[in-house]
Specification:
By secondary structure, this protein is an alpha/beta fold. The chain has a single domain, classed as 3-Layer(aba) Sandwich (Rossmann fold), CATH 3.40.50. It contains seven helices and six strands; from the N terminus they run βαβαβααβααβαβ. Strands 2-1-3-4-6-5 form a six-stranded parallel beta sheet, with helices on both faces. Helix 1 links the parallel strand 1 and strand 2. The structure holds thiamine diphosphate and magnesium ion. Magnesium ion (MG) binds next to helix 3.
């Protein structure tokens, strides 16, 4: 996937600076010559890294670079903040590809709790009910893909690209591994 994205436009967001998966991909893509924007680093004036930036920034990037593929890698909670912006993408015919890392949780909060209270303490206040984002977005006029293995993601992205629609790849990630992701 990293090689395939060489030279293409990408926009990465996720979950603040700790979003390991998003940042690992971003770094690799930048090494391969892609234009990478880390949307999470768009700080508010209070200095926070807001979760909500990925999808709207992807739509904006596609607006100014309509001939280049635009990808956004985001956590599931971050995506849930403003999933309704997909209506904008559909209405304005901007086929962005959003890869949603689904651990069913505010994963980075688990990382923070672990740091503060230790691994043996129970995690709290982080879980979501299960949501099939690939199905939700079809009802909004998008293309949806579901992947549960790394080997499936490349073909899912290809199908998303050829759909010509704004597309979501619901990518299942291991919720335990996501507490200590590779880019962390
Ligand atoms: C607007 C906003 N609210 C809260 C936070 C604090 N925060 C940082 S990461 C995070 C959890 C993100 O979860 P998710 O997007 O699912 O990514 P994961 O860590 O699970 O991969 C939260 C709540 C934030 N950065 N921005
Ligand atoms: Mg998550």
């Amino acid at each position: 996937m990293y090689q395939d994205l060489k030279g293409e436009t990408a926009l990465v967001t996720g979950a603040g600076k700790n979003s390991g998966i998003g940042y690992a991909i971003a770094r690799k893509m930048a090494e391969n010559g892609a234009n990478v924007v880390i949307a999470d680093l768009a700080k508010t004036k209070e200095g926070n890294n807001p979760l909500i930036t990925g999808l709207p920034y992807a739509i904006g990037a596609k607006l100014v670079q309509p001939d280049k593929p635009v990808y956004c890698v985001t956590g599931d909670s971050a995506f849930g903040f403003n999933i309704q912006e997909l209506e904008t993408a559909v209405r304005t015919k901007l086929p962005v590809i959003i890869i949603v890392a689904v651990d069913g949780a505010y994963g980075m909060e688990k990382t923070a709790q672990q740091r503060m209270f230790g691994r043996q303490a129970d995690w709290f206040g982080h879980k979501h009910a299960p949501v099939r984002y690939d199905k939700v977005v079809v009802a909004m006029g998008c293309h949806g893909e579901y992947v549960s293995k790394g080997s499936e993601i490349e073909s899912a992205i290809e199908r998303a690209q050829s759909s010509g629609k704004a597309a979501i790849v619901h990518a299942v990630v291991d919720p335990v591994a996501n507490v200590d992701p590779p880019g962390n």
